[in-house]
Design a protein that fits this description.
The complex is a heterodimer of chains A (438) and B (283). In chain A, 37% of the residues lie in helices and 18% in strands. A 7-stranded mixed sheet of chain A has the order 7-6-8-9-10-16-17, sandwiched between helices. The longest helix of chain A has 22 residues. Chain B has one domain. In chain B, β1 and β2 form a beta hairpin. Classes of the chains: A alpha/beta (438), B mainly alpha (283).
């Protein structure tokens, strides 16, 4: 049967007549099938709302790129895990990523883009204190929660602190509290600090140095530009009576100062000590066999075998998720060493955001102040999301506290943990009180 | 004091000779092609990066010292033929073009070599005592190789037909063309030679600094200072200036903080430019 215009009727096309009952049965089954199918792919609550967007800024080009690479890897793995477990408050989580180019002005414009164009809900990332300081006014102006990735200047949660910033990891003051006494007792009482001539290097020299002097030790400080290639003019100024040479540089200069110390034969007459920030992301085989005997203060053991026994199960799952081997290398490239002591922040922060959202009942930016209050009272127990161990936030200055480790380079160039410093020993009086500023 | 002075003088000469080699390549290209090569530091970096790969494959530093500069020379050849030849008479455009090349080479190195600084083991690991300090033998070897390369370059420029052509093109390009000198070929090989010198310096410096995709940035600034103070286009002015500036910095470091001693070097540059704006040996 054809219509007047010659086209076939619906009945002809379908091949049989469809009753109302058939239609209802078929569409109900189809809808049920679709619902079940979608549940298996996206475990989010139907109608829970638009995805929660987390913006990240990382050092992906120009400098400190090994940090950008690994922190981004950890953030992506964390978001994937969160989504696999149902997202945050039933909402899917999305990551929006930008490069800081290690340039505070550029990073600031990217941060503004995250807020105004990408409409992110939370922000995190960067290991650069200058970058973080540059975005502070924006975080404050837009009441945008911001969580640092690995910047170590003490002032970020001290004299320069802002209410919408939190740092879950260590910084120069805490490092000094964790590392000075052990070094003073075990390595020597006469120290020379050869450090980068900017806030981070100054902080380390001052925080460690003041404690050494107060305990009756002697210190000398030599400042060198962060981009120094040849350290010989600086190393020749090291006091002949020095027992401990404490160096603090990032990237290529960190490697340079270590090897040139050996080139001049100084490693034979003094102990070498530094914070792991200088060689995180750099394999000891890169530093060379002469690095054996050097001491590092770290915030997460590089080798799985050195992780405390009670944390090893969590550590194993974490390493697998972020693509890191038991020796702290990239699973896909054994020459690429992970920034093991820094990258865990990007793994833990998304989970802490989830906890704070659930605690504060956060649904959108109107409750950002409540969210920040909740975040900064969190006490995260060691677990799959906190493989580094218990972590405690302090509401006054939005600073987190966690365990530290002392590691020494072995003759086979592995890092062996020789002491663990509990977070309780690192507490200091909060320099600011941000509670009334939210 | 005596040991510090000895180390400062020795180290100043060593670094001066390495810097001189870098500045020579930069000055050679400027003197002949009038191209301010902003990518020179990146070519220096590529030399170090390629040498790292060669050493990873063969374990032989001396092979890397031969192979890596040649590989960078090929890149220089491609850059001159593919990009710079069409714009070589437009100095401002060449600055922008070579700046772009620098960024591209840096990011390629970041992508393939990675952001982590790498180490090349000292091929000659010994040290010798210098008063109450010690000084690495390899640095002396590096200085000697730099000096030998400079002598070879002098011989090349003054004792070969190609060197004669190059000097002729510098003196009077039109006359050189009229006399049948293949000017474009001379340009091409000069750029290649400049690239090879940059890369050679990179391989020489690699065992004493770290190999890093940004290692050419700082060195480029110092190379430009040397070329400007020595006199743009004057090759031997660059050599003398490089050693003098390094010595000023090294000896100054004994009396003040080394970073402050940089002020002495920069003060020397300002003084020279005030008295002789064309540079110490410029015409």
């Amino acid at each position: 049967m054809k219509n007047g215009n010659g086209k076939k009727s619906v009945r002809e096309v379908m091949g049989s007549e469809i009753s109302r009952r058939d239609f209802i049965r078929a569409t109900t089954m189809g809808a049920a099938g679709l619902a079940v199918g979608s549940l298996s792919f996206a475990p989010f609550t139907y109608g829970a709302g638009k995805p929660i967007r987390i913006g990240t800024i990382q050092e992906n080009t120009v400098g400190a790129t090994v940090y950008g690479y690994w922190l981004t890897k950890a953030a992506r793995a964390a978001v994937a895990k969160l989504n696999a477990e149902g997202g945050i408050a039933g909402r899917k989580v999305e990551l929006v990523e930008y490069d800081t180019k290690v340039n505070p002005a550029w990073a600031s414009s990217m941060y503004k883009k995250l807020i105004l164009e990408d409409k992110v809900d939370f922000t995190m990332g960067s290991v650069h204190s200058g970058v973080q300081m540059a975005v502070f006014p924006l975080a404050q102006q837009f009441k945008m929660p911001y969580f640092g990735g690995g910047a170590m200047a003490a002032g970020l949660t001290g004299k320069d602190a802002v209410a919408y910033y939190s740092r879950i990891h260590t910084h120069a003051r805490m490092q000094a509290a964790a590392g000075w006494k052990w070094g003073f007792d075990n390595l020597g009482k006469n120290w020379t600090f050869l450090v980068a001539d900017y806030a981070w290097g100054h902080s380390l020299a001052e925080e460690f140095g003041s404690r050494i002097r107060a305990a009756g030790g002697k210190t000398q400080t030599i400042l060198a530009p962060q981009n120094t290639s040849d350290f010989v003019p600086y190393l020749q100024k090291v006091d002949p009576g020095t027992k401990v040479l404490f160096t603090a540089f990032l990237g290529a200069p960190a490697l340079g100062v270590m090897r040139q110390t050996v080139e001049l034969g100084l490693h034979k007459r003094l102990q070498r000590y530094t914070v792991i920030c200088c060689t995180d992301g750099v394999g000891q085989e890169t530093v060379g066999k002469e690095s054996a005997g050097a001491h590092y203060l770290s915030y997460y053991p590089r080798h799985a075998s050195q992780v405390p026994k009670e944390l090893q199960a969590y550590d194993k799952a974490y390493r697998k998720a972020v693509g890191m081997t038991d020796d702290g290398k990239d699973v896909s490239d054994p020459k690429n060493t992970a920034t093991v002591s820094h990258m865990w922040t990007m793994w833990t922060i998304p989970y802490m955001i989830k906890q704070a959202v659930e605690l504060s009942g956060w649904k959108d930016s109107k409750k950002n102040a409540d969210f920040m209050k909740a975040f900064n009272t969190l006490k995260v127990k060691a677990g799959p999301w906190a493989p580094q161990g218990d972590l405690m936030m302090r509401a006054n200055d939005h600073q987190g506290f966690h365990n530290h480790y002392l590691e020494v380079v072995q003759p086979d160039l592995s890092l062996k943990v020789i002491a663990r410093v509990a977070k309780e020993k690192l507490m200091y009086d909060a320099p600011v009180d941000l509670r009334s500023k939210l | 004091m005596a040991s510090n002075l000895a180390v400062a003088v020795l180290n100043g000469i060593v670094w001066g000779l390495i810097m001189a080699l870098i500045a020579l390549g930069l000055n050679l290209i400027f003197g002949l092609l009038h191209i301010i090569n902003m990518a020179h530091g990146a070519l220096y970096m590529l030399g170090a990066v390629f040498s790292w790969y060669v050493i990873e494959l063969t374990g032989n530093y001396w092979l890397a010292l031969c192979v890596a500069p040649l590989a960078v020379g090929l890149i220089g050849l491609a850059l001159e033929r593919g990009l710079l030849r069409t714009i070589e008479d437009k100095p401002l455009v060449t600055i922008i073009c070579t700046f772009g090349i620098m960024l591209v080479l840096q990011q390629l190195a970041l992508t393939y070599f990675g952001g982590t600084a790498r180490r090349i083991a000292l091929p000659i690991p010994g040290r010798f005592p210098l008063f109450d300090l010690q000084y690495p033998v390899m640095r002396i070897v590096i200085a000697a190789i730099s000096a030998a390369v400079m002598v070879a370059l002098w011989l090349f420029l003054n004792r070969t037909r190609y060197g004669l052509w190059m000097r002729a093109v510098v003196q009077d390009r039109e006359m050189a063309v009229a006399l049948g000198i293949p000017v474009h070929k001379v340009y091409m090989w000069t750029f290649v030679l400049g690239s090879v010198l940059a890369a050679f310096s990179g391989v020489l410096a690699a065992p004493i600094v770290s190999v890093d995709f940004m290692m050419g940035r700082e060195i480029l600034i110092m190379a430009f200072i040397i070329v400007i103070v020595g006199g743009m286009g004057n090759l031997w002015g660059s050599v003398i200036t490089a050693v003098v500036i390094s010595l000023i910095h090294g000896v100054g470091s004994i009396f003040v903080v080394p970073s402050t001693a940089t002020v002495f070097s920069l003060g020397f540059m300002i003084l020279v430019l005030l008295v002789r704006p064309q540079g110490l040996f410029g015409e």
